[in-house]
Specification:
Order of helices and strands of chain A: EEEEEEEEEEEE
Helix content of chain B: under 10%
Strand content of chain B: over 45%
Largest interface: A-B, 22 and 29 residues
Shape of chain B: globular
Number of helices of chain B: 0
Strand content of chain A: over 45%
Order of helices and strands of chain B: EEEEEEEEEEE
Oligomer: heterodimer
Shape of chain A: globular
Distance between the termini of chain B: 36 Å
Helix content of chain A: under 10%
Largest sheet of chain A: 6 strands, mixed
Structural class of chain B: mainly beta
Distance between the termini of chain A: 41 Å
Radius of gyration of chain B: 14 Å
Radius of gyration of chain A: 13 Å
Number of helices of chain A: 0
C-alpha cells in the first residue's frame, strides 16, 4: 500500500519569502505520479504541480517547483516570492494510475503581510 | 465548463437517516471517485469507478454504496447515517489513460453533519 507523510503540520512565512514544504512517500510501484494540491478556505482542491516518477527533471509551474528525490522517496514543494493568496492547506499525494490518490495529512501554510 | 458538480453543498442528518450525495461531471471522464476529508487529515478514498457499470472499494468503503449507471453521474449513498460519517465529501473525475491527462478534477465538496 502507498503511504504519504507530511511532517510539518503548520508553517508561517513573510510575504515575498521562499518556503519549502516537505513530503515523503512509500510505494512499491515503478510507475506512479506525485502531486501537490492546494486547499484554500473555500475547500476547493486545486492542483498546484505534478511530477511523473519516470521523469528525472523536477517539475516547475511559475513560482512553484518541486525537488523530487526518487531514491529517497522525497517530494518537496518550493514556493518562491510567496504571496498572501498562497495561504492555504497544502496536500502531497501519490497515485498509481489515473484516480487512486493517497494523500498526506496536509501542511497549513500562512503567508503574513 | 461546469467541471465536477456536487450537490448539496451542506447537509445535516439525524442518525439512521439515509441520503444520496450527487456528483456529475461533463468532461466525459471514465474515472470517478469519492473521498472523505476529516479534520486534520488528508482525503481518503471511499469508492471509485473506472466506467459505467463498474465500481470498486477504496480505503474506507464501510457504510457507503455507489453505482455508476452513466458516464456522467456517480452518486454516493449513505444507507443509515452514523455520527462517524460526519465529514466533508469530495467527488473527483479523471481520464483513464496515464500521461499528460492524468489529473483529477475535484468538486467543491459537500459538508455533512450527522447528529
Amino acid at each position: 500500500a502507498q503511504t504519504v507523510t507530511q511532517s510539518q503540520p503548520e508553517m508561517s512565512v513573510q510575504e515575498a519569502e521562499t518556503v519549502t514544504l516537505s513530503c515523503t512517500y512509500d510505494t512499491s510501484e515503478n510507475n506512479y505520479y506525485l502531486f501537490w494540491y492546494k486547499q484554500p478556505p473555500s475547500r476547493q482542491m486545486i492542483l498546484v504541480i505534478r511530477q511523473e516518477a519516470y521523469k528525472q527533471q523536477n517539475a516547475t509551474e511559475n513560482r512553484f517547483s518541486v525537488n523530487f528525490q526518487k531514491a529517497a522517496k522525497s517530494f518537496s514543494l518550493k514556493i518562491s516570492d510567496s504571496q498572501l493568496g498562497d495561504t492555504a492547506m497544502y496536500f502531497c499525494a501519490s497515485s498509481q494510475g489515473a484516480q487512486k490518490l493517497v494523500f498526506g495529512q496536509g501542511t497549513r501554510l500562512t503567508i503574513n503581510p | 465548463n461546469a467541471g465536477v458538480t456536487q450537490t448539496p453543498k451542506f447537509q445535516v442528518l439525524k442518525t439512521g437517516q439515509s441520503m444520496t450525495l450527487q456528483c456529475a461531471q461533463d468532461m466525459n471522464h471514465e474515472y470517478m471517485s469519492w473521498y472523505r476529508q476529516d479534520p486534520g487529515m488528508g482525503l481518503r478514498l471511499i469508492h471509485y469507478s473506472v466506467g459505467a457499470g463498474i465500481t470498486d472499494q477504496g480505503e474506507v468503503p464501510n457504510g457507503y454504496n455507489v453505482s455508476r449507471s452513466t458516464t456522467e453521474d456517480f452518486p454516493l449513498r449513505l444507507l443509515s447515517a452514523a455520527p462517524s460519517q460526519t465529514s466533508v465529501y469530495f467527488c473527483a473525475s479523471s481520464y483513464r489513460l496515464a500521461g499528460a491527462k492524468n489529473i483529477q478534477y475535484f468538486g467543491a465538496g459537500t459538508r455533512l453533519s450527522v447528529l
